[in-house]
Amino acid sequence: MSMEKILDKARLNDWIAALAKGGDWEVHAPALEDGVWTYKPVGDAVRMDHPNTKQPPKGFSFPQREVFFSFEQIKGEAPRLTQVMPDPKRRAVFGVRPCDGRGAVRMDRVFADNVNDPYYQARRKNVAYVGLACNTPPAATCFCKSVGGSPVSTDGLDILLTDLGDRYHVAAVTETGKAMMAVAGSPLADAAAADRKQVKQVHGEAVAQPQRAVNNPEAAPAKLKASFNSPLWEELARACIGCGICTFLCPTCHCFDLNDEMTGTVPIKGNRVRTWDNCQFPDFTMHSSGHNPRENTAARLRQRVCHKFQYFHENFGMLQCTGCGRCVSECPVGIDIVAVVNKVAEHVA
Ligand code: SF4
Ligand code: SF4
To answer: Each residue of 80-110: pLDDT tens digit?
Structure first.
């Protein structure tokens, strides 16, 4: 059964305080720091007038660096391993945009459905996403609608907030969301028929806002497959400097590396550490022989784009791109994934 409530904006902090006190949630929300929107533990006042955060919220379940276990080897003894599991704190993340909620769905497919990653799952089960519908004009780089999303999508979210001026409409999506709305001391009030009517209208207007688009996205996987040997990739990647910003900021990129970081030599001590890796770096696929199967930026750009629009679709039946636009807005040389997909599709046609 759906649950819809209304929250006076002036009482948002009261709800957050109730979640912290009554629900034992550590609440995070977007904060503007040095001109950059980023998720921070909530301080005195929460603002949710952010366009989107620079980094997606994927770090709550897949941090950029995490220790799996520590090890110690004393000469003549068996090595001692101590597993380091994530702390079990429950974290509620406010202000997640619908494209990033859909990013969480894709991360779950990789780390919770496809393989059983205990570190990811230990964090993910304690993270709740309180989404915020996009009912202001989209950024020039947004294209969520053409990749199956919507500015009011609830995919991957536990709750969806909709800004109604001086109030939020609060809709539960999951059982966790319902429990958060019903937490002791919650200032949420029942939504009236007029509120439901207003939110329906606001959502309709949001969905009707024009956005840029991937043309004919259903055909993209086949078109990209046919483009594998196209010389067009050389041309499209000519400006790429291999900085990796596009993948580090993507809500669905999930490649990682494992390393042993030594902290002592007698006895041998250290940590097994997972860190994000990046398919746009030359050494990502470098073999120990020196051979590199993706030897140039063209092969690496093709990998990034085909992973989003072909390979992930073949493996999971969904595009891996959610149209957040970060890789478009942040690429220092202006490489634009929408333009790339559209140009490749046009070329192979
Ligand atoms: S952000 Fe742009 S320049 Fe940097 S690796 Fe990605 S496509 Fe290349
Ligand atoms: S590929 Fe680019 S636009 Fe698509 S989800 Fe990743 S960062 Fe966002």
So the answer is: 999 999 999 999 999 999 999 999 999 999 9
Nearest atom, ligand 2, residue 338 CA: 3
- Nearest by Cα to 164 from 196, 142, 207, 190: 196
- Sheet with 167-172: list strands edge to edge: 36-41, 25-33, 90-96, 127-132, 159-163, 167-172, 4-8, 189-190
Cβ–Cβ under 8 Å, residues 247 and 335: no
CA angle 82, 87, 88 (to 5 degrees): 125
Q: What residues does each domain of the chain span?
A: 4-62+84-208, 217-255+277-348
pTM of the predicted model as reported, rounded to 2 decimal places: 0.95
State in Å: Cα 241 to ligand 1 middle.
Answer: 6
Q: pLDDT tens for residues 267-302?
A: 999 999 999 999 999 999 999 999 999 999 999 999
Closest residue by Cα to atom 8, ligand 1, is 240
Strands 127-132 and 189-190: unpaired
Q: What distance in Å separates the CA atoms of residue 121 and residue 144, rounded to the nearest whole number?
A: 26
Which residue, judged by its Cα, is nearest atom 8 of ligand 2? 324
Give me ligand 1 centre to Cα 281, in Å: 10
